[in-house]
Amino acid sequence: MKKVLVLNHFPTITPPTSGGTLRYFYLYHELSRYYDITLLSQGTGHKSGLFQFSPTFREYKVGPDPKWSKHRTSYEFSLIEQMERSRQMTNYKESFEKLYPDNDILVHESPFLLEVDSYLGEDDKMRIYNSHNHEYGLANLVWKNENARKFLPIVFKQEKKLVEHADLVFATSEMERESFISMYGKNPMQVKIAPNGIYPNTWRKSTKQLNTKPKAIFIGSEFPPNIEAVHFIIHQLADQFPNIEFMIGGGCGNSFSLHKKPNVQLTSRISHKQKLTLFASANMAINPIFTGAGVNLKTLEFLSAGIPLFSTTCGIRGLELKDFKHYIHADKENFAAVLNRYYGEDELLEEIASNGQKYINEHYSWRTIARGIYDEMENFKPSNP
């Protein structure tokens, strides 16, 4: 069994609940059917060490170095800091050097730790870029801090280098695939699609009939587009719908803990069990996402769970969903009007939710996605120099 080492700038959460941790854990959990997988993650300090998930799947969570551990940075600068520290001999770099000789394939989850891999271009080991997003394109969209934006050329340079040296690049959607090809001039035969996915049998039976008020849910990590969505819910939707209870889960609500809207409930980091309970109680899901890249994992989960979804185009990007068949489309300008028109149409919403659930569960299971990645890796033949 070939050995695979995966480099990432954030750790898993088990079981994962939102954001990139879902892809990071579940995709490699399924790939460990075919490969011996080691995740090398940059831990947050409070949980570090070796975590063995199965005989062929484990994670090393590397705690931060003392000189970095006191830093509390914003989203943009935490990524910039990762790029800066990757050039130095850190605890993470030392762990990579120990693990490198025994692994046959190296996978980069992003360009932010690229410089840790000092053997890139110097050895004959297979390299994979398993992207969560087209990171430069995303950063160019969501990085607002002017000082942070000065580092965008470095992000571009790092991602271009990674794409050029990767034997295979996996994008989460056709749009992202085309973006990698056009921006970095990569051979289209080496850029494949590996979408985000779900486990269809995860969800609990609905309890929404017990609600005294309709519940609309939104979840997300502490990520700028998610925070923007929470601001929109609190300041644009909550006052217009006093009879709807808006439930917001995850770190996206951390900045709004002092809000005074009686029909908005915030839950910070939620466990997997809490998420299942939240989903089961929902009458609808809302996804007012206005910027972003890749495929939105919360959309997959909302639909897989059979929850009627109101979403912007950005919220359903890369999934080829049809308005009024799989979900109900709403723009920033008319989100409230669309929600007001349809949130009480129970029969219509049930039909749309059923269609969306069937479509997602048939096309986006983690097991199917992992098998596709395995086939691409095993069938890859390097081009002659």
TrEMBL record:
Keywords: Glycosyltransferase, Transferase. It is an enzyme of class 2 (transferase). Its EC number is 2.4.-.-. GO terms for molecular function: glycosyltransferase activity. Pfam families: Glyco_trans_1_2 (PF13524). The keyword Glycosyltransferase applies. This is Glycosyltransferase family 4 protein. It comes from Niallia oryzisoli.
